[in-house]
Structure formats: structure tokens, C-alpha cells
């Protein structure tokens, strides 16, 4: 009686993700250095925010402060009425984010699913509108706002940025919906679903991660806008945080510690918003990559 020997194939060793050679560590080191370089301006801002005007004038922006100076924070908070400016920026950016996503979704649904005649030309016009600089739009917007009585109101800025942001959102979502699975749409049509039902029961759940990413981007982009709010909002009661920060700089004199303190306070809400929705942003980008 002879025993049979079964040869077991030897699997090649697979190197795990922690041992991929020198190139991985070179890329990691490059990314780390790039991140540190990007953090340098924020470090200078933090350093000078708690520096007295005397220390700044004697030692310059790179010197270490001799005392923990907080008067700049209190001055900025009281002079520009920061709680009111925070409310204005939050109201404008939040409204633009919500309305911009809704308008983008409706436009893209008509272009991507509805198959409007001349769809490619319309999408190209949205792309072209997104490329227009704000400097080219500022005078027509100013003139129209004056004529219809919306000048120096938060509503005017909300309408303007909703249109601007939705131009990009429409172009992006129309490209996504152009490749939407037709089988889902046909199955919904066989079940008797109308256009609105298809939009909210079929299209919207599948686009939810992408819409969440657009919402976050629209909020941050609108929060940082300066030129249009500077021209359209001239009253202290309607101005946003970036405009209030610019008001600290005079023609011939600038209080650098107070300006740095104001920039530090103004940056905190945006950072908190990003940290709160960081996981939503990461899930949305990952879902888009998987699709």
C-alpha cells in the first residue's frame, strides 16, 4: 500500500501595506513636509495674536512675546461686534449651502435624467459661468441690487452666491446623473412612480454622499468670500466676518496684533464646522470614488 503525497501549492508572499519599500516613506515624508509648510502661516498668526503692540514693533513678527497679551482679542470682539458678524456669516453661508444644493440637484436632474434638448450646450454654459471672475460680475450685480431694492441686505448676497455655487453644483451633478443606472429609473417607472417620486425616492438617496460634500464645500467657500460682501454689504449690521476683519486695517496704520487676533477668532468657526463634518466629507468622497 503506497501513500499518495498531495503537493500543496506554495502561495507567494504578499507584502503588507507597511512594507512597500522606500517609495512609500518618501511620499509620506513629502506629504508631512508639505503639511508643516502649510501650517507655518497659522503658527505666525497664533504667535502674533497674543503679542502686544510694543513687542511687535520692537521685535517684529518673528519674535517671541514677552507677555501673554489678550487685549487684541477683546478689542476685536468689541469693535467689530463679532457675535453679530458671526451670525451674519453663518446665516449667509448656511442658506447658500442649502439653497445651492437644492438648485443644483433640480437643475442636474432635469439635465442628467430628463434629457433636455441641447443638454451638452447647457452644461457647457454652466461650466463657463463658473469660470467667470467675480470682478466681471460685480458692477451688474451692484446695479441690479440697487434697482430692485436689495442692496445692503443679506438676501442679495444669499441670492448671488446661491446662483454662483449652483453653477458648479449643476455641472458636477449633471455629469454624475448622466451615467445614472437606467435600470433603476425603468424599475421606478414600471412601479408607477412620477418624476418627483423618482427624484426623491431613487435619485436623492443615491446622491446623498455627493450632496453632503457639496453642502460642506458651498458653506466653506461662501464663508471665505470677501469681494461681493464688501461691495454689497456696507452697513455694520449686515457685514460678514471677512469684511469686518478688513475694517481693522486703515490707510496708514494697522494694528497687527489685533488683526492677527481677529483672524484667529474668525478662523475658529470654520475649523469647527470642518471638524464636525469631517467624517461626512470623507464618506462622501469615498462613496464617489467607489461609484
From TrEMBL:
Subcellular location as annotated: Cell membrane
Signal peptide: none
Domain called ABC transmembrane type-1: residue spans: 86-277
Keywords: Cell membrane, Membrane, Transmembrane, Transmembrane helix, Transport
Classification via Pfam families: BPD_transp_1
Matching SUPFAM superfamilies: MetI-like (SSF161098)
Residues passing through the membrane, by range: 25-47, 86-108, 120-143, 155-177, 198-223, 261-277
Membrane topology: Multi-pass membrane protein
Family to which the UniProt record says this protein belongs: Belongs to the binding-protein-dependent transport system permease family.
PANTHER family reported in the protein's UniProt record: ABC TRANSPORTER PERMEASE PROTEIN MG189-RELATED-RELATED, SN-GLYCEROL-3-PHOSPHATE TRANSPORT SYSTEM PERMEASE PROTEIN UGPE
Protein name: Carbohydrate ABC transporter permease
Organism of origin: Micromonospora antibiotica
